[in-house]
Amino acid sequence: MDIEHIRNFCIIAHVDHGKSTLADRLLELTHTVSARDMQEQLLDSMALERERGVTIKASAVRMRYTGPDGVEYIINLIDTPGHVDFTYEVSRALQACEGAILVVDASQGIEAQTLSNVYLALEQDLEIIPVINKIDLPAAQPEEIARDVEELLGTPVEDMPRISAKNGIGIVEVLEKVIAEVPSPATNAAESLRALVFDSHYDAYKGVIAYVRIVDGMVNKRDLLRLYATGARFEPVEMGVFDPLMRAVDSLKAGEVGYIATGLKTVQECRVGDTITLAKRGTEHPLPGYKQIKPMVFAGIYPTNNEDYADLRDALEKLQLNDASLVYQPETSQALNFGFRAGFLGLFHMDIIQERLEREYDLDILATAPSVEYRVLLKDSQTILIDSPALLPDENIIEEIQEPWMKIQIYVPQTYIGAVMDLTIKKRGSYETTEYLDASRVILHFDIPLSEIIIDFYDKLKSVTQGYASLDYQFHEYRAGDLVKVDVLVNEDRVDALAMICHRDDAYHRGQRLVSRLKQLIPRQMFTVPVQAGVGKRVISRANVRALRKDVLAKCYGGDVTRKKKLLEKQKKGKKRMKMIGSVEVPQEAFMALLSLDE
Question: Which one is predicted more confidently, 479 or 34?
Fold first, then answer.
């Protein structure tokens, strides 16, 4: 087909503004999927995506549509992930397009991800088509929301389609706007093959399948190909297009979107954002924007039953085949035995991986409290990176500890400015600026340590703003702080999985709260169990779990008092010996107690 009749676009929106539902209606309108095969959120293949209403994995689909001018067009829709943790994947999907439909909920208005995705689309110089969705809701204010979007983008209010994706209202107008306003792909005929990898997944028979947009040149089934960043070479096992299921073709030309089955065995060799080119006489100018994404949040994952260790390792290996951003390595803990230290893009990503391990692989797992990667400068001028409090070296050899700081934007009605300020400053945040979106909504800009965000910041933010606030964040820099490691000792044994790194000013209060919580959670033994929190060699808090009492005098009736004393002395010796060799089981709830210390 002529490149003039190809349109590549994506749909961007805040979580739950109707992105996947609009994609469903477009597939129905173009008869890409028969009515018999149609189901809600068709492009969201995971059960988790359907339940949570969030697209986790990008997908693509090719639609054919005859425009008002009687010409048949090929329209490629690339569905982008819908959460801030996957911003890099969204930016690569946007690079594969020439246009974007911006879906805004008529009852919610502009929210954090709306603006974040708009800026990403503007960076890629895309044609943005704003659409006001959910106009059939009782709380909808389509005209007011349209005016807000006009102020943001400059698109006249009357040019924004008012639609209801759920009920199929206004869908034809949206599709015709895509044909009319999204430009056809631009290509450089003189350039060798350049194909952008905007997503990938692993197939047991075909290896890694790369989702690609052919930017320049063309690719045939017999071409020997190479990935620019990783240097991996391969001959395609298969190539094709999404209709929406995979349909094999012999070649892909410039401007087209499709897939290439590489036969590679790990997703690490075929990363999102990389450029595919010919192995011989390939391009020397890869597509811009590629970077290796680094995990931001780390947590220990342990099987509750130690016999399941091998199953957990296999499950993580299989998950990593489809998710290159998941990293893990074996770890041992005195309290929890064998497990893995895993790195995630953010808390939502961690939550998804945890749930998939439990559901898809039927594992019973325990995840420790999440931590971040600290940069530690030692007195001998060495710098080390640590992602677990247990790895922090002795404080005598540390020069300074640096922690990651984030720039955050909180979108909130003016009424809640005070509550948000109060919450953020308690979390060691520093206020930057306030931006006014309209007469009633503002964007508050703060700098805040990542370690303060990852535990319960988002839940508390929703709580103090009655659910109205939305949050967006980006990594800013590493900053030195007065940070200390708080160790926890149970029965004078260090429990490494309960250690935490926090600011010196918070150490006493957090240590005290954790000790109080552990006193309630640790089951009583036949001997007194001391629970202590300490910084360095100094104990900052202590509580005793009282011993269970056994009445050894019950059988001793009458007689001389020395008989009673003799029995009590015998019990005392037994308890002393038991305390020396007895082990205290720390229950799972104790590790979860770390997540709610600020309540």
Answer: 479
Q: Which tokens sit at 500? A: 């935490």
Give the whole-angstrom CA distance, residue 134 versus residue 162: 8
The pLDDT value given to residue 14: 79
Q: What is the 3-state composition of the chain as percent helix, strand, coil, each rounded to the nearest 5?
A: 30, 35, 35
**β-strands 470-481, 500-503: how paired?**
unpaired
Whole-angstrom Cα distance, residue 572 to residue 35?
A: 78
Of residues 458, 512, 510, 516, the one with CA closest to residue 484: 510
Hey, what CATH class is 194-278 in?
A: mainly beta
Over residues 426-440, the mean pLDDT reads 86
Please report the DSSP string for 166-213 in residue order: TTTBTHHHHHHHHHHHSPPPP--TTS--EEEEEEEEEETTTEEEEEEE
| Parts of the chain belonging to CATH 3.30.70.2570 | 485-596
Number of H helices, E strands in the chain: 14, 31
Q: What percent of the chain has pLDDT over 70?
A: 90
Decide if domain 375-481 falls under CATH 3.30.70.240: yes
Gap between the Cα atoms of 358 and 363, Å rounded: 5
The correct CATH number of 485-596 out of 3.40.190.290, 3.30.70.2570, 3.30.930.10, 3.40.920.10 is 3.30.70.2570
**Contact yes or no for 290/239 (Cβ under 8 A):** no
Question: What ranges make up the beta strands (E) of 358-427?
Answer: 365-367, 371-372, 374-378, 383-386, 398-413
71, 3 Cβ separation under 8 angstroms: no
Torsion angle defined by CA atoms of residues 280, 281, 285 and 290, in that order, rounded to the nearest 10 degrees: -10
The answer to whether residue 56 scores a pLDDT higher than 60 is no
Domain 297-368 bears CATH identifier 2.40.30.60: no
Rounded CA-CA distance 336/338 in Å is: 7
Quick: pLDDT tens for 326-366.
Answer: 888 898 877 678 889 898 887 778 888 888 888 888 888 88
For the entire predicted model, the pTM comes to 0.73
The band of 421, judged by pLDDT with boundaries at 50, 70 and 90, is very high
Burial class (CB in 10 A: 0-12, 13-18, 19+), 508: middle
